[in-house]
Amino acid sequence: MIDKDPQWRVYGAGITITGPTLRVMEQLGVLDAVLAEGWTADGILACDAAGNVVSEIDTSHASGGIPGAGGIMRPTLHKMLQAQVHKANVKVVLGIAVAQLSGQDVTFDDGSKGTFDLIVGADGIFSDMRAKVFDEVPAPRYVGQLCWRLMCDRHPQIDRRTYFLGGPVKLGMNPVAPDKMYMFLLEPSAEMEIIPDDVLAGRLSGLMEGFGGAVADVRSAISAESSIVVRPLETIFVPDRWHRGKVLLIGDAAHATTPQLASGAGMAMEDGVVLGEVIATNDTLAEALDAFMARRLSRCSLVVDKSLELGRLERAGTGPVEQIKVVEEALATLNGPY
Question: β-strands 227-237, 243-244: how paired?
Answer without folding.
Answer: unpaired
